[in-house]
Amino acid sequence: MAKMDQMMQILWMLSSGRKATAKQMAEKLEVNIRTVYRYIDALCASGVPIIAEAGHHGGYTLLHQFVESPLLFSAEEQTALLQAAALAKEAGYFSGELLDSAASKLSMYSTPEQESMVRRRVEGLDVIGAAAGLPEDSILKELEQGVINQVSMEIDYYTVREDQPKRRKIDPYGIIYWNGRWYVAAFCHLRNEIRSFRVDRIAGMAETGSSFNRPAGFSASAFFMKNLLPEKEQTQEFVPFVVSGRTGALDDLCRHWFLGHHLAERTSERAVFFLEKEALHTYVVHLLLPYGKSLQILEPASMKKKMLEALYELADHYQK
């Protein structure tokens, strides 16, 4: 165990509020008692208020005000951090080994009472991640370094219309996690504009050695969502889309990432959206198919016609 880790563990042992002798700490750390004395001297020299009491019932304690310091996490704070780490790992966070290291340090520096309480709380919350996809950790880490160091990258990128990857030079501005996938917002030198790229479509990458300046105030998430939900234009025709149905189905529909942004009215029996007509007659039609008979379209009438066309097309496909 590193010296700093051992000193921090002494600090956590003393944070319990109970006295601890040098012998007890040496046994816990599995070090020589003289090493404990050196660590305590070093902590005191750095400003940690350790109180030493001599005698048969003596030992070391921390000044009460220091025990309340934000440096020492409460059981509730430790639980929140560990649960957040579990959520991040299951979401596919690309530095999982660092999360594990941080979690082990939290456990190492906890009092027995804290450790028991935290374990019971953490065991009460399970996270089930999405099905594992292709490993992207190494690419994400390289992209992260490119973002931090503002270094241009060359990527071999697949699109849905191409069987072979195309080499592109990008300036990575930020990494986004959305809807179970990783994206990078970057300036594309091939297209001469900022674009978002799916990380799982990057077949390979390398640094170019050239640097760039990220635009001041640029927000990767704001750029990404703006492209998903473009601003309304005067030339676009928006129509009301009114649907009724079971409460659970309506709730699910209103929480959808796209429809939720267009929700105009919601009651216990129906929901009203204002949508661009072309999107309603294409994307939304296929979005509604899995709901079956749990939803009923009230208006527009053209939407019912589009649903019938989609169903006939699907039936014809499976009859062949």
From TrEMBL:
SUPFAM superfamilies: Winged helix' DNA-binding domain (SSF46785). Residues 8-60 form the Helix-turn-helix type domain. Residues 139-204 form the WYL domain. Transmembrane segments: none annotated. PANTHER family: PROTEIN PAFB, PTHR34580. This is YafY family transcriptional regulator. It comes from Bacillus infantis.
